[in-house]
Design brief:
The chain has 16 helices and six strands. The strands form two sheets. It has a four-stranded parallel sheet, sandwiched between helices. The radius of gyration is 24 Å and the shape is elongated. The protein is of the alpha/beta class and 341 residues long. Helix content is 52%, strand content 7%.
Length: 341
C-alpha cells in the first residue's frame, strides 16, 4: 500500500538479478467490525488501503502478468451487518479484476467464504463472534487444501470473478429480509416438506398457522417463534430466555439487532423497523407487537403501554412507536427531528 516502498523493493529486486515477476496473489486484508453508521475515516482507511491501494499499485507497477489473483471475499456478494468498509474494499477488487480483464490483462478475483482455521488472524481477538454470526446464517468453512484445489480449477476457466463458499441456502434465506434474490432460489426447497414423497405437501408458514389457530393460542405460537429466533441470533438455548428479560441483558447489540429484525421479517412476512429490538426490548414485547402488526389482535406496543411515568416518557414512547412502519433512513430522521436536544 506504500508506493515509495513498493517501487524501492521492485528496483532492488531487479538490481539483485532475480527473474522477472510473472505472477501475483494479492491476499492482504484488514477487518474491523463496524456498522456503516459507526464508521470513521480512520477505520475506512485502514480497511481500504491494503485492498484498494495495494491491488492498484501492484497492477500499475507490475503491468502485464501471467497470473494476477485477488483474494476478495463473499462479503461483497452476500454482505453481513458490520462489514461496511470491508465490503467496499472487496467490491473494488471484483471491479478491478473486470477492468483488467477488459483490457486483455490477466485477473481473477475470488470471493472466498470461510477458510477453516485461518479466520483468527483476519478477524482479530474477537474472531469468534463474527464467525459465530456467519455460521448461524448458514455459512460453512472449508479446509485449506479444498480452497487451493478450488483455486487451481478456477485458474483453468476464463473468468474475472468466481465465488467459493459452502453455504446452507435455506438457513441463509431465513436470516435475510424478505424479497431478496436468494429467496427466489430457495423458495421451492424451503416450502416443500422434506417427508413428502411427491413434493406436493408443503410445510405451513407461521402466518398460515396463526390464521388457522384459535385466537387464544396465537400469542403462545408467536412467543415460541420469537424465542426460537432470539435463541438462534444470540446462540442461546431457548430454555434460558426469559420472555420478560430485556434482550440487551442477553447480549443483543446493534449488529445482532439487525439480524433479529431480518429473521423476524422472514418468519412473519412483515416489514419491520430497524429499531424494533429497542422499541420492544423483550420476547414478550416483540410477540405482542407482531400479533398487532399481523392484525390478529389489538396492537398494544409495549413501549407505549409502559410509558406512564410522565409526559416526557409518554412523548418519547409515542415518537418511537411512530417509526415502526418506516424504512431505516426515515426512522432515523423521524427520531432525530422529534427528540429535544
Amino acid at each position: 500500500g506504500d508506493e515509495v516502498q513498493l517501487r524501492a523493493y521492485l528496483d532492488q529486486f531487479r538490481a539483485d538479478g532475480w527473474p522477472p515477476i510473472r505472477g501475483v496473489v494479492h491476499a492482504a486484508a484488514v477487518f474491523e467490525s463496524d456498522l456503516l453508521t459507526d464508521l470513521d475515516a480512520s477505520s475506512m482507511a485502514a480497511q481500504l488501503r491494503p485492498k484498494v491501494v495495494g491491488a492498484w499499485l501492484l497492477g500499475e507497477l507490475l503491468g502485464d502478468l501471467d497470473l494476477f489473483v485477488l483474494f476478495s471475499s463473499i462479503a461483497s456478494v452476500l454482505p453481513q451487518p458490520g462489514q461496511g468498509a470491508y465490503v467496499a474494499g472487496n467490491a473494488f477488487l471484483d471491479a478491478f479484476a473486470e477492468w483488467r480483464a477488459a483490457r486483455g490483462l490477466h485477473a481473477l478475483s475470488v470471493n472466498w467464504g470461510l477458510w477453516a482455521g485461518t479466520d483468527r488472524g483476519l478477524l482479530g481477538e474477537d474472531w469468534q463472534r463474527p464467525l459465530a454470526q456467519m455460521e448461524a446464517q448458514g455459512f460453512r468453512s472449508f479446509r485449506v487444501d479444498q480452497g487451493l484445489d478450488a483455486l487451481a480449477r478456477m485458474l483453468g476457466v476464463s473468468t474475472a470473478q468466481a465465488v467459493f463458499v459452502p453455504i446452507d441456502w435455506r438457513t441463509y434465506d431465513a436470516a435475510r429480509p424478505s424479497g431478496t434474490f436468494v429467496s427466489d432460489l430457495v423458495a421451492e426447497s424451503r416450502n416443500v416438506h422434506p417427508a413428502s414423497p411427491d413434493g406436493a405437501t408443503r410445510a405451513m408458514s407461521m402466518v398460515d398457522r396463526l390464521a388457522e389457530a384459535a385466537p387464544a393460542d396465537r400469542y403462545e405460537l408467536v412467543e415460541a417463534a420469537v424465542r426460537r429466533i432470539v435463541g438462534r441470533v444470540l446462540q442461546l438455548p431457548e430454555a434460558q430466555i426469559d420472555a420478560a428479560q430485556p434482550l440487551g441483558e442477553l447480549g443483543l447489540d446493534s449488529m445482532t439487532g439487525v439480524d433479529l429484525r431480518n429473521r423476524l421479517e422472514a418468519e412473519f412476512r412483515l416489514k419491520l423497523s430497524a429499531t424494533l429490538a429497542w422499541n420492544y426490548p423483550a420476547v414478550a414485547d416483540l410477540a405482542g407487537h407482531l400479533l398487532g402488526k399481523l392484525g390478529l389482535t389489538d396492537p398494544a406496543p409495549a413501549a407505549v403501554a409502559k410509558a406512564d411515568d410522565g409526559e416526557a416518557a409518554s412523548s418519547l414512547a409515542q415518537l418511537i412507536a411512530t417509526t415502526d412502519d418506516l424504512d431505516d433512513d426515515d426512522a432515523i430522521r423521524a427520531l432525530m427531528g422529534g427528540l429535544d436536544p
